[in-house]
Amino acid sequence: MLSADHLRPTGDAPLLIAPGHLLQQGGMKQGLAVAVQHGRFTQVGPVDEVRAAHPGLPVHEAPNHLLMPGLIDTHTHLTQAFGKSLAFGEPSEIFRRIWVPMEGVLDEHAAYLSAKLAALESLRGGFTTVVDAGTRSEEGLAGVARAAREAGIRCVLGLICNDAGNTEGEAGARRILDRAAGFLAAHEHDPLVHPSLAISIPEAATDRMLHDVAALAREAGARFQTHVNEHLAAVERSLVARGLRPLELLHAVGALNDSALLAHATLLTPRELGLLRDSGAAVAYNPVASAWKGNAVLDAGLLQMLGVPFGLGTDGTRADALRLMDAAEMAQRLTQGIAKGDSSCGGGWTWLDHAAHEGARAAGLGAVTGRIAAGHAADFLLLDVDVPEFVPSWDLGWELVRFANRDQIDAVFVQGALRLWQGWPVDWDARALMREVAAIARRDVARAPIQRVHATSDAHRAQAEAERMRASSSF
């Protein structure tokens, strides 16, 4: 029986695994094995060939497991883990009333704790790569990078470069751009933390800063991240202030190019879709965020048809990659498929692709991760498929999208190292982290100027019951 001890390589010797099923870019395969060494897949091929290439080494057989790429969260917020359900049931633009106030009080240690907790949740949910859109904590960026490395998750880490509040003119703008260039250079060769530049939303920056930050990111081969056309209020503010919708504004100032990763993009006109298609920019599709607090759902099938690169993102809602694929397919079916009689909505393979290799492409890491292939980083999952939900199995791809559960994930590997075994880290104390988070989060949430519109669920229940009692007594 497979165990964590089996999956730890000895010295410099490669780790050899022969799963019952292996998910490659073209679909499910059987009879294959992988060799992992120095953080990468060094061989993927028939079991006998892999065995013959490594005489004397054990091949760890996992006949009841699927070996699949670790999945990619193309849009999240690692320093929002302290808030979580505080945003539930709230109207849109919660960043103004909850996230900006909460992140603003985090010191470097608190940001580190939040990011490490979020990274743990992501790994437990099957994500081996997360794209963080940037923290609003002035001191927290170094803590986020340290947390990612310690947790062992691959992270595209955004540095926010907003300048709407700049009161120092050219000197202030130069300071922001110099910091951005230094950040890109400092992480250029980091094996796990990949640098990125971000503008929170286009209205948070001047035209010059939008252009220059996107150009810096493009020159460095990094991603330029921003939230675009997510909420009606933001679209209307942009029209009033700049005469253009947010995506149109990016195009007008030269910031809409193939370095861009646009979060949400749910409210797009036909013209904006054309601009997006022609730009080479990628999109993070966030179906759970649309359901929980959005104004609309992106038509991911249309993006696919237009050839726009896109991945799936959580927006920090819940760090569960398998449920995210289910939500993506369900959102497409409810908002597009039912009305058009499209019962397939892209088929199960669409959501697997965009959670894995297409997600890696959208994150700017298509040459690094997202595939089980020689030369790519060994970021992968071992999923137990010997469970009632998968018996009998007729279509493993569809079953992964609609049936799979994170408790089936036995092993999570990032950069060739076993990070989690059956949901828990193998080399650090997650429960100690959870205890410290519980104390620090209460302190920071209590002192943050958070404004919630709705009460917690128990208080809301009590209010509803009181109203019902008052109404019934009036008859």
UniProtKB/TrEMBL annotation:
| Gene Ontology MF, one | hydrolase activity, acting on carbon-nitrogen (but not peptide) bonds
- Ranges for domain Amidohydrolase-related come to 67-416
Pfam families recorded = Amidohydro_1, HUTI_composite_bact
* Keyword terms: Hydrolase, Metal-binding, Zinc
Looking up InterPro entries in the UniProt record yields:
Amidohydro-rel, Metal-dep_hydrolase_composite, Metal_Hydrolase, MQNX/HUTI_composite_N, MTA/SAH_deaminase
Q: Which residues form the Aminodeoxyfutalosine deaminase/Imidazolonepropionase-like composite domain?
A: 33-56
Q: Does the keyword Metal-binding apply?
A: yes
Q: What family does the entry list?
A: Belongs to the metallo-dependent hydrolases superfamily. ATZ/TRZ family.
- Protein's UniProt name: S-adenosylhomocysteine deaminase
Lineage at the top is: Bacteria, Pseudomonadati, Pseudomonadota, Betaproteobacteria, Burkholderiales
